[in-house]
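Researcher: Next sequence.
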Amino acid sequence: MDSIKEFFSISIFGISKYFIVAGSYYVVCYILYKKTLKNARIQNKEIVGKDIKREIRHSVLASVIMSVIIFIILESDWVKYTQWYQNIQDYPVWWLPLSILSGIFIHDTYFYWLHRLLHHRRIFRYAHLVHHQSHNPSPFASYSFHFLEAIGEGLIVPVLLFIIPFHPISLYCFIVAGFLINAYGHLGYEIAPKWFRNSFLFQVLNSSVYHNLHHSKFRGNYGLYFRFWDKIMKTENPSYEEEYDKIQSKRFDNQKTQ
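Model: Next structure:
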């Protein structure tokens, strides 16, 4: 009975996180501030209801699959071989945020190479085509995966737990933080502030334009959080900075004339 409750607790967390984060992005950008953000739209093509329904359907299934993976690793004997700890005093308090940041760096590497694998011509149509049905993604596309891809994506949690110590607080903060960034990448709007372009962060971090180009062009820009793997492997879309500047110029030049 306790195991069933734990599974439902993990599943409810995963599904609720998806709807709260993706739904909030959608309500703000597509409903409340649609007119205000019209110049921040990355693609002109409208997103239709059937696309959103498809994205939600696949995302809910993916959320459940990823919840099953977390449940299995935490509720089985395998947990003894991980670095999962529940007594917060086992590690210094500063390790909580550091473990989250470490998880994000490891996840970015994991995601980049998994993503490259999913784009292999023998694998793409079986496991990754579902996600790329969203040529112009909405935040609801963030978890719109084929079940095979959902398994691959969900395995990052066991990988992290075997590599570095995670407390429940840091693990769930990592999951939420990762999804916030993921949903921003699928937002369909570029909402980064003007100063971001001329800061060192622009050379390091992805943007919504960055991942949107991956969806519209189907190749390049494979990273999730950072640009460095794409730069190292020369897979970054060469028109990225130009496209980013076009969107931001349209946004901020328009504000000056209003």
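Model: Residues 61 and 117 are 22 Å apart (CA to CA). The chain has a mean pLDDT of 94.
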